């Protein structure tokens, strides 16, 4: 095989079918429809100017032999616009692994972008750290929020893609809740008095023992202090829907939540100028592709 036959380029709309087939072969347990759904969602998103819509692929003889998905989004950090990129699913056919660095070098070339990896396999942690990524999340809290106290007068409401303006909720928060409801997430609002606190979650089954336990994974809240404050109301709301557990990114046990903290899973990394905060996985692979 000659090196000149392998090249790295942006994924185009015409590559979607071939890319989905390649990822289906590379990720056991993920169906072709799973990848097509996520790629279709990527095709409809707003992305920052100059950023690739899907990511990059390795091509040999006109066919994809490797792929790295990238999800770009523009954010406001400390009042300033920033760009974040979720470095997502990576697969290269075994016979072309020598060229895999072409993908990673292309994916991390913009020093103004903050890159995040939210689902690294444990065996890749040393490799990711050698590439300059730093850990920002060490594990997960598996909480039973229904065991927390409920603030008097607090109520929980579902926000849909069609929900109208909500008093006390900034338009940016409402837009986030609406867009993620459209992705299939559970967008919730905790209200007490004149306050409105947003939360976004996705269904998750926690594997422990013979029978998986149904739960929810927290995608977004403005601050973990708001989560602790609303935990009782949220927990009872979720319990009525058969979801007793809530999974929350954490670096230690969270005061005010009853549950178990573990570092066996949930590690997350970043590289770039703006360290991510915990409890903000909006517009990532967890949302667009699913857990």
Task: Summarize, please.
InterPro entries: Acyl_CoA_acyltransferase. The chain is an alpha+beta fold and 291 residues long.
Overview features:
291 residues, alpha+beta, Aminopeptidase, 2 domains, seven-stranded mixed beta sheet, 7 helices, 24% helix, 34% strand
> First CA to last CA: what distance?
37 Å
Major β-sheet annotation: 7 strands, mixed
The coarse silhouette is: globular
Q: Which segments are poorly predicted (pLDDT under 50) over 5 or more consecutive residues?
A: none
Q: Which range does the strand content fall in?
A: 25-35%
Reading the helices and strands in chain order gives: EHHEEEHEHEEEHEEEHEEEH
Number of helices: 7
Number of domains: 2
Annotated CATH homologous superfamily of the largest domain: Gcn5-related N-acetyltransferase (GNAT)
The Rg value, from CA coordinates, equals 20 Å
Mean pLDDT over all positions: 92
β-strand number? 14
Biggest sheet strand line-up: 1-2-3-4-5-14-6
Structural class determined from secondary elements = alpha+beta
């Amino acid at each position: 095989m000659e090196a000149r036959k392998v090249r790295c380029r942006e994924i185009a709309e015409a590559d979607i079918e071939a890319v989905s087939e390649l990822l289906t072969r590379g990720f056991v347990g993920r169906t072709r429809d799973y990848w097509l759904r996520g790629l279709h969602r990527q095709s409809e998103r707003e992305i920052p100017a100059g950023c690739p819509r899907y990511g990059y692929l390795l091509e040999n003889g006109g066919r994809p032999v490797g792929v790295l998905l990238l999800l770009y989004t523009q954010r406001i950090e400390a009042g300033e616009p920033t760009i974040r990129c979720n470095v997502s699913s990576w697969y290269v056919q075994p016979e072309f692994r020598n060229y895999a660095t072409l993908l990673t070098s292309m994916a991390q070339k913009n020093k103004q972008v903050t890159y995040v990896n939210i689902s690294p396999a444990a065996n890749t942690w040393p490799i990711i750290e050698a590439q300059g990524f730093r850990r920002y999340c060490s594990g997960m809290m598996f909480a039973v929020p229904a065991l927390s106290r409920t603030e008097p007068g607090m109520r929980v409401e579902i926000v849909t893609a069609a929900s109208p303006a909500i008093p006390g909720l900034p338009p940016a928060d409402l837009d986030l809740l609406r867009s993620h409801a459209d992705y299939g997430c559970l967008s919730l609002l905790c209200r007490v008095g004149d306050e409105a606190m947003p939360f976004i979650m996705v269904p998750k089954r926690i594997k422990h023992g013979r029978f998986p336990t149904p739960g929810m994974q927290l995608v977004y809240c403005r601050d973990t202090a708001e989560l602790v404050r609303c935990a009782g109301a949220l927990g009872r709301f979720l319990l009525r829907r058969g979801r007793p557990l809530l999974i929350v990114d954490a670096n230690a046990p969270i005061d005010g939540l009853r549950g178990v903290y573990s570092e066996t899973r949930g590690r997350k990394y970043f590289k770039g100028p703006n360290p991510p905060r915990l409890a903000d996985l909006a517009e990532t692979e967890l949302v667009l592709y699913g857990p």
